[in-house]
Amino acid sequence: MFGDISGMMGKLKEAQQKVEETKVRLNSVLVDESSSDGKVKVTLTANRQIKTISIDDSLLSDTEELEDYLILTLNKAIEKATTINENEMAVAAKAGMPNIPGMDMFK
Predict the structure, then answer these.
(1) First CA to last CA distance, the chain
(2) How far apart are CA 100 and CA 82, in angstroms?
């Protein structure tokens, strides 16, 4: 009914390997973001791991303002990293998927 089952299983293993390789590669893809005035700068990997945070000294005296800056800047960086991550993972998953009738959700 589905044709060559062993061939499909091989394709699925290949897809899984591609996804794992992509995850590893995304650890080296860096996303930089900064506040509109440049007082806070963050760097994340495309897997959404924070690598660096740089804070201007002028923000150190006002905790509430610093928190606001961090939240806004980190959220923007996470959004960018998530977009990159999702796009790359979709490509990796699609590349190795076997052609199963009715399973065209990756197209």
Answers:
(1) 22
(2) 28
Rounded to two decimals, the pTM is 0.74
CB 45 within 8 A of CB 26: yes
Any idea what DSSP says for residue 62? -
Q: What single-letter amino acid sits at 72?
A: L
Nearest to 27 by CA among 7, 8, 53, 47: 47
Q: Where are the beta strands (DSSP E) in the chain?
A: 30-34, 40-45, 50-55
Enclosing H/E stretch for 68: helix 63-96
Per the model's pLDDT, the better-predicted residue between 59 and 6 turns out to be: 59
Q: What is the CATH number of domain 5-96?
A: 3.30.1310.10
Give the mean pLDDT of the chain: 86
Tens-digit pLDDT profile for residues 31-78: 999 999 999 999 999 999 999 999 999 999 999 999 999 999 999 999
Distance CA 2, CA 8 (A): 9
